[in-house]
Amino acid sequence: MIILKTDRELAIMAKAGQIARECLLRLGAMISPGVKTFELDRAAEEFIRSKGALPTFKGLYGFPATICTSKNEVVVHGVPGDTVLEEGDIISLDVGATFQGFVGDTAATFPVGKVSPDALKLIDVTRESLNRGIAQAVAGSHIGDVGHAIEGYVKEHGFSVVKDYAGHGVGRSMHESPTVPNYGKPGMGPLLRKGLVIAIEPMVNAGGSEVITFPDMSVVTRDGSWSAHFEHTVAITEEGPVCLTMV
Ligand code: MG
């Protein structure tokens, strides 16, 4: 069932989104060689709670932490721990904050120090593919339009989108209908209507699209190639797409 949000609910979701985004940007500023992923997680939980919000991911499906920290070949759902960030790595951070019962969900991939041109290109293409997807998130379009725009842009640059995981509706629950795949056919899939809120989140691999999921929930590329991930929570409105995870 697709749950449309009222304007009042959207205003709360914008606050949740803002907290999640501000958290993400603060973590991004902490990233440098030598930092351990659990340190980012601790800072995230402190920040989110200081804003009167709750860490959405903690305990959800048994996930043990506030954020996901996914380095290099880890696509999503990396578990924070003793993993050390090293010069040349890329690190994807995914943040969820629940404020007054509503969820904001956002992610980005950051370079650690100086990274290779290939890694930078992967980050840039993934970020732009999200922008292309968001541009399609207008009332009267379909979920397939969003995925089609994302995959088309990614393929153009020689990379591949992950198909086993997808974006999602978001609201009082982190995962609501509809599923928002990062591929699709124009005009196909659920209709986008005013009040629908979706998390659009391209996961882009430098190599093949296949992934492996480990028992701790972390997802890695099957071929070991690196992967990037960007995500915004986006509302469909009469005035076009409104990104709720903006500061
Ligand atoms: Mg998400």
Question: What is the CATH T-level topology?
Answer: Creatine Amidinohydrolase
Q: Radius of gyration over alpha carbons?
A: 17 Å
Bound molecules: magnesium ion
> Span from first to last CA?
30 Å
Mean pLDDT: 98
- In N-to-C order, the SSE pattern is HHEEEEEHHEEEEEEEEEE
Structural class: alpha+beta
CATH class: Alpha Beta
* Percentage of residues assigned to helices: 25-40%
The global form is globular
The stretches of 5 or more residues where confidence is low (pLDDT under 50) are none
Within CATH, the superfamily carries the name Creatinase/methionine aminopeptidase superfamily
Number of domains: 1
State the oligomer: single chain
What's the architecture in CATH terms?
Alpha-Beta Complex
Describe it.
The chain has helices at 7-30, 37-50, 117-135, 143-156; strands at residues 54-55, 67-71, 74-76, 90-99, 102-111, 160-161, 167-169, 176-180, 197-200, 203-205, 211-213, 219-221, 227-229, 232-237, 240-243. The chain is an alpha+beta fold and 247 residues long. The chain has a single domain (7-243), classed as Alpha-Beta Complex (Creatine Amidinohydrolase), CATH 3.90.230. The strands form four sheets. Strands 8-7-9-14-15 form a five-stranded antiparallel beta sheet. Strands 1, 2, 4 and 5 form a four-stranded antiparallel beta sheet that branches. A three-stranded antiparallel beta sheet has the order 3-12-11, with no helix packed on it. Helix 3 (117-135) packs antiparallel against helix 4 (143-156). The longest helix is centred in the first third of the chain and has 24 residues, at 7-30. The structure holds magnesium ion. Magnesium ion is lined by residues 105, 168, 199, 201, 231. Residues 105, 168, 199, 201, 231 line the site of magnesium ion (MG).
